Amino acid sequence: MATHHLTRKDLKHDVVAETVEHQIDWFAAHKQNVTRYAIIVVALVVVIGGGWSYRNYQIANRQRALAEAMNVENAPVGQPSPTGGLSFATEELRTVAAEKAFSKVLTSYPGDDEGFLAEFYLAGLDSDNGKMDLARRKYQDVADHASANYASLAKLALAQLDFAQGKINEARAVLKDLQDHPTDLVSKEQADITLAKGIAATNPDEARKLLAPIAGKAGSTIAEIATTALAEITKK
Length: 236
Prior knowledge:
The protein is mostly helical and 236 residues long. It has helices spanning 8-11, 17-29, 31-47, 53-73, 91-108, 113-128, 132-145, 148-164, 168-180, 188-199, 204-215, 221-235. The longest helix is centred in the first third of the chain and has 21 residues, at 53-73.
């Protein structure tokens, strides 16, 4: 299935937007785990001493470089930062700067978690701009070579790209693996929701069966996401 260049405005009305929206859903559902991992990294830098001082220095540098790149991506557009920090006149300028920052992290720290996370973010920027083949290659590299947690994030994104490009069977296979092998960062429920969203248009009954048990677990963010997805299917 051929793809075309997509602007951010186009993405609001295209299936490809699910890739970006899902990342927002994932961070909302896993905020506690993300925070815990960040605390662990900081704790490693603080606690491990003595002969490990150089290792601490390396970890701190990698984390700092990744944080700086993320700050670029999250900088405000079209208006000065309220804190007087970094800002950009246009989305395009911010994207160029973010790509440069993440590429520097990837080049500087290949094979480290920070490098793979930078590659993951670069893939997201490619997806956001309709460069689906480039996004797929980057996500696949993370899926094949990163540690289990970060590889699972890339696999989730690959499944969404498969759905966006009409590769339903391929998406199912990836999600089946995630359902069978959940990680701290991608739960079975998250894989179920991704599958449900991907098949909602062609198999709404199966999608509802996947979402209903998750939506029934009241009081959690993941349940709220499932409930919203279930409501969207019902409206169609």
